[in-house]
Amino acid sequence: MDIIDERKGEYAPIRDSEHPQLGKFDKPLPCFGCGIGWFSFLLGFVCPLMWYYATILYFGNYYHKDPRERAGLAASAIAALVCSIVVVITIIIILL
Question: For the chain, which residues make up each domain, given as ranges?
Fold first, then answer.
């Protein structure tokens, strides 16, 4: 919802008095636009420690800075849980 500023030929954001936070999340997410959570989730298949990093961010309420990060951080936390369970089961099978 932008309009063209006639003087400069550039876009100027429209401010809505009823919804002051409307343009708060217009910036693209970090990590190539997919956010830290999804980036950590995808990179976790190569280096599973990234899942644990994102889990720490998730439980540290990092998503309060930008709610768009919540889904990716939660997915990484679930992946870390599954990875931990698989590692524990593998160690138990190897030791028995």
Answer: 26-95
List of E strands, the chain? 2-4, 11-13
At 66, phi and psi to the nearest 5?
-150, 105
Structure-token match 């190897």, residue found: 94
- The residues, ordered by sequence, that sit 6+ positions from 4 with a Cβ below 8 Å of its Cβ are 10, 11, 12
| 50-92 pLDDT tens trace | 999 999 999 988 877 778 888 889 999 999 999 999 999 999 9
Q: List pLDDT tens digits, range 20-55.
A: 655 666 677 777 777 888 889 999 999 999 999 999
Phi, psi of 12 (to 5 degrees): -125, 130
Q: Taking Cα atoms as reference points, which of 50, 47, 46, 94 lies closest to residue 75?
A: 50
The whole model's pTM is what? 0.69
| Residue whose token pair is 């939660």 | 74
Task: For residues 61 and 58, give the distance between their C-alpha atoms in angstroms, rounded to a whole number.
Answer: 5
